[in-house]
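Quick illustration for those who missed Monday's session on complexes.
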Amino acid sequence: MKMFMRPLVASLAVLALAACEGSAGTAGSAGAKGDTGAAGVAGAKGDKGDKGDTGAAGVAGAKGDKGDKGDTGAAGVAGAKGDTGAAGAAGAKGDKGDTGAAGAAGAKGDKGDTGATGAKGDKGETGASGAKGDAGQDWPGPAPAAYLAADGIKGGVAYSEWYATGAGGKGSLANANVTAGAEFVRCKTCHGWDGLGNAGSYANRTGISTGEATRADVSDVNLRATVASASYQDLYDLIESTWGRPINAANDSRHPAFAGHLEPAQIWNIVKFMREEWVDPNELYDLAIVGAPLHYEDVAGVWTLKKPTLTFTNLGKDGDAVAGKTLYAAKCAGCHNSDGKLVLLEKGTMTLGQFVRGKPHEAWFKIKFGQGAVMLPGLVTATSDLKNLYKAMADTTAYPNL
Ligand code: HEC
Ligand code: HEC
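Prediction with heme C bound:
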């Protein structure tokens, strides 16, 4: 830019020199306006237009008359600055680029997270039926040899008085080393003739805790149920009862430990009696027990023993009275006489008819297993015969009371 400035300053100096020397010369005409700068080339931003050229110096006036000293000529007007070049038009929008080549396939993605646990599978199909099991053994299985060799009638005798010689015992309690009274060691005292304990014919029977000091209380065990569920050996073990109370414990109503007092053969006899020879009392009569079990009650301030009432009915059930009379005539009349009044029983208070009707729960036991030294065991053993006898002896005319 400095290169262009220098000539401009020089020309101005020439112009000023000329004016000084002229006399009254006319003022130089104004310099022509500079040409408009060429428009910038479209596209690129136009360059700034060049400054317009200085107007050409006015032509010197012809020599005038000597007049007054002329005024100094005005300095030539500086050329106007050239117009700014028009802005270049905006470049046309470029053509759309060609479609790019397809990108290369992306790299394989990372492994996904482990999925949630699946739902429970369906229930499997029902399996096939199992093979048929082996044939079962008849309950309670084969009887032990000792049981087969046992005597059930003798066992019944033992149930009443196991120490008696007729029961295979040593003849007396003393011989059997028993000091407790007989009524604390006889099976029937605690279990009843029927084995039903205080739920059967002994329901109203007193013992040490209910005013009868010389005998044990009746048990609440149902021995008929025990027989129905215990094996041969179990029944043997229960009777032998190594777990029982000391047999000579005084006034003790628990089951005595018979081990060492009862011979094994006697125990097997009792087991056989219980399983095979024990008559079901329901076949011989009906027993009705009315009232709460034996207990004490406060009656108007007095501690009173209450007993249930027992009633025996339907003696001999569906037995045959005629057959019973025939049997009686053949097997009993010889000692008891045809009316049953010859041998008075229960300390002389009862005829035989009276005994059978009043104590049917005990009579059958005596008839089948004997009584005392005279009436031997096994006189009548079939339940059907006992039924016929009972049926016959229900007759108070043929077998009267005292
Ligand atoms: C002093 C009373 C008494 C005498 C005597 C007695 N028992 Fe028991 N017995 C019981 C009592 C009570 C039980 C129940 C268990 C217990 O309390 O000891 C029992 C239990 C039994 C059982 C087991 C019952 C079960 O289901 O658990 C048998 C069997 C049995 N006695 C048989 C006999 C035989 C047989 C005799 C005679 C050789 C006899 N008892 C003598 C009182 C007696
Ligand atoms: C050989 C004689 C004899 C013959 C047979 C006989 N008895 Fe007896 N019986 C007696 C004597 C004796 C008594 C009393 C025993 C006693 O109190 O110790 C008795 C008692 C009884 C008792 C009561 C038992 C008791 O606990 O008091 C009955 C029940 C009985 N006999 C029924 C019969 C019947 C039923 C027959 C026939 C099937 C029969 N007897 C056959 C002699 C006999």
